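Q: Hi! First time doing this. I have a protein sequence and I read that you can turn it into a structure. Is that right? Here it is:
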Amino acid sequence: MAQAAKAKRRKKEQSEYFFDYSLLFIVLFLLGFGLVMIYSASSYNAYEDYKDTAYYLKKQLIAVVIGLVLMIVVANIPYRFWARFYLIGYLVSAASIPLVLTPLGQSSHGATRWIIIPIINMSMQPAELAKLGMILFLAVLVCKMGKGIRSLKGFAVMVAFPLPVALEVYLITDNMSSAIIILAISILMVFVASPDYKKFIIMAAAVMAVAALLIFLVVSGSDILEFRGSRIRAWLDPESDPTDTGFQTLQGLYAIGSGGVLGKGLGQSMQKLNFLPEAQNDMIFSIICEELGLFGAIAIIVMFVMLLWRMMVIANNAPDLFGAMLVVGVMGHIAVQAILNIAVVTATIPNTGISLPFISYGGTSVMFLLIEIGLVLSVARKIQLKEL
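A: Yes, that's right. Below is the predicted 3D structure, encoded as structure tokens:
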């Protein structure tokens, strides 16, 4: 009896909590690499516009530092603490999007998608807040619904909640890519939580059928999608309008093609010299391909695969369903955004503005991504390791 108690006590003493240093290293690598590529891609335009080659680098560095501080804070707060704010997060996300129509709204490149936070005089994109709020809300909702999610009614409820927020993002801020990401995060979380895959196969078939019909109508000359129809036509044949709708797609492909296997060398891109629009933002992957070649592009893709794999390991070993769903939501956000960005740059899908996680220029995006990584690390810290 005494020996059993002693063995039990020793086993308890040998227990320790898990910290995923691999995940942290990958995130830090992507952040550092992103800062280097932002400086390389933006230095020419930054000097032309602001007489400071490091203008964009400095702004992104400030956002990265703030994001890392927030990540550390969130990582050290037990993730279950945030469950009580799931409804507030959903409502705040929905309420923040219309603020772009108020005097707080800020426009850039012809789009009004940002708001100014008066106290700290910083801009924020409400769509990024909505992604985080949706992850938290659905993670709690999955836990509350339990087995009810398997029914058609439960499935409908899970899919219905993200729709109003996604529609707000699309209709108010005219940001289709963020609306798609919000819906994709939601569907992925429901997909993981529900064992019945028939509904998702039917949904995927319906989406593909609608997409095929829209493409057919656009090719036939219909203006049903307005300016987005011109983007689809430019995607199918970018050389048909090389100076307007097909310009960015063609310049991105020129950058990728000219990079070859090993690239021209860091800082040696020609397309960033006022040829490729948004070189440091949505199209930064094409600059990576031009300067570092196929080798650099594959290396970055491998890093993203490793990042997602580490998250999958954490989700599989999470102490409870809520923690697992939080990690699944973050994993879905990063995976969908990275895939869509690379697909746009390589002309696999029609052009739409979407950033490459941790690498593209964008302060709001990187800060909220790092907060999400903090949540993942918080879940990982509760994974208990024991010596058998």
